[in-house]
Structure prediction request, 549 residues.
Amino acid sequence: MYQQYAVPEDNGAFEQRVRPYVNQVLLYETAVRQEAARKTVPVEQLEEKALVSLAKEGNLTPSKNEQDHAFLLQLLFWFKQSFRWVNEPPCDGCGKKTISVGMDVALLHQGSRVEVYRCNSCPAETRFPRYNDPLKLLETRRGRCGEWANCFTLYCRAFGYESRLILDFTDHVWTECFSESLGRWMHLDPCEGVYDKPLLYESGWNKKLNYVLAIGKDGVCDVTKRYTRKWHEVLSRRNIIAEPALSSVLANITKECRRGFTSQVRSALEDRDEKERQQLERDLLSTDDASASLPGRRSGDKEWRKSRMEDGSDESCSLTGSSCPLRQCVDEHVTKIYNGFCPILSQLVDEGFPKSRAVEVLEILKEILINLKKSPFKTRRVSIDSVPNISQSVVQQLLPSFTELLSALSLSSKADTDGRVDIYLAGPPVKTSMALPVTFHALDVTIRNLKSCENFVKDSLCLPLLKLNRIHSGVVRASGEEIPFGIATSAFDGTRMSKWEEPNGAEGCWIMYKVSDNQMHELVAYELMSANDAPERDPMDWYIHALHL
Prediction:
């Protein structure tokens, strides 16, 4: 039993604080706003990324719930990149820094106020309206956590996710969505691009939480217990309203929200409420994530974060997996792609193509695949006669040698009697989506190695020009990993567009690959690929060890 701390009489102040948000979430239900939101999203691109993320985990035939869950995460990551955080807005006149000089009243688009700023370099005044209408935010695409969570929650509703705006009385706002795949409500913070880390605020930001409310179209729920493992401390800070009065206020608002619902819908919601209540009690007693390493706040200016004491105790801390789980590599396609260059290069040698002409053929192949990638991923198809500057006669001549590489890409080809050559999907679209980035990297490397060959002859068809029989489909474990974009299997996925990132790598790290057949293999060569973002993180020294376990 926990003590109920003494609190003053509420007199409706708590309800008055919550009511505006109850009205706010109803804006997300309007067809006009939902349609406007959907029009701004690259839906096919996110669908493709969602399927690729599942395929990299070995799930090539995901259920609808799994696809919906993966799409939601991609929506979160896209939103994080497409929305802009505002500390002080740049000067409307010259674009330089500004300082705050006060407030004004906002009247348009349900704006709560206007922040007024003066430029440090010119006499111009810049006004920053704090809009509440998510329809306007689809246009401005900027703000602080209120605008971010407001707009992102609209996006979630626009794509059919059961969503709630989460109000933290210690001054933060985020989103929860019900994941059918997980069978529970899931935390999503669009400002941080973080999901399913409810202890982020208490453990990472060092917040002293008191009230965390979930506000949706069908009611308001106290979800504070999801976001703390220090309930007794939190309870001591809940001094705005007595606990029985709080329960009564939320129950009355929820009852009002559900007025007009059928008895069947109300019954289903009440069942879900009860399951959530039980889950919240279990969360409170859980020790699963209590000691997890979580970062301080990343959104907002550094000095602003420090002033709020939300920057965390360790600036180098991130969403890490300190004990990286054993992960299965889904990379057989990488091996098949590199093997697929052998028949192409062999035919070029056999038919006496000079090195310069062989390079031209590979560049033609790359151009064909670039045009294929531009087509809709579910129906990818390219006709050679539609690709500019492509010699159809060369393609027809070499088409048989392309078969193995195309197969590795889950593609097939067809040549008509009139000379038209089509390349099209021959398997699940996601296999092609996963393989194309690898193929582009392999083509670039092969072209570079081919150009450096002294003589393009049979003897040159070996390392480094050809990289045959690459080990694949093993399991990986590492000293740590960055979640979700730096997991350990990314070290073996054949593309520099992803990476394994060890947050503490500067202090030393390790990664282990265990072959799938549990047999001894002769390692002829290995290759380290640098990621495409931060050269200062590239390893300077390393050791490789072979063990037979």
Observations:
- The first helix runs from residue 13 to 26.
- The longest strand covers residues 172-179.
- The mean pLDDT is 91.
- Residues 332 and 472 are 5 Å apart (CA to CA).
